[in-house]
Amino acid sequence: MSNIIEFLKSQEAKEKLMSLYNLDEQAVDTQVKRYQKLADAFAEVYPVDNASFFSSSGRIEIIGNHTDHQLGRIVAASIDMDTIAIVTPNADGKIHVKSLEYDEFTIDVNVLAVKEDDSRTVKLIKGILERFVQNGRKIGGFTTFMTTTVLS
Prior knowledge:
The protein is of the alpha+beta class. 33% of the residues lie in helices and 29% in strands. A hairpin with a 5-residue loop joins β3 (94-99) and β4. The longest helix is centred in the N-terminal third of the chain and has 18 residues, at 28-45. The two termini are 29 Å apart.
C-alpha cells in the first residue's frame, strides 16, 4: 500500500484525478484527500501492495426508471457523485466488502444460493456472480474498501 499512498502525493495522481473529475488544480485536492483517506483505511487492515482503485459514477434516470423495468430503454446521465473502491485479490474464495459508511460483509464465491436473511446488496452481488458462472466466467475472492458521495 505504501506505493499507492506515495503515488497519491504525486503530480501524476493529481493530473489523473483532474482528468477523471474534470477539475482544476485547486479543486482536485478534495478528491486527492478522499482517495488518501480510503487508501489509509485499507492499509490499516490489509498491508498489501497489489491493490487498484476503481470509480463508478452516480447516475440519474431522466426518462424511465431502472433498465430491468423499461426493457433496457432509459435516458440516463452521470452526475458528479461517485463510489470509489480500492480492491485487492485474495486466495480465500471470499469477497470482503467494507465501506467507510457501512458495515462489512462477506460472500463466499462457492456458495451463491440466496438466503432469506441476505441483504438486498448481497442478493444483488450473488445474482451477478451467478450469471458470471453461468456464462463460463471464473470468479474468485477479493477484498474491497469503498466510499461514496452518492446519496443513499
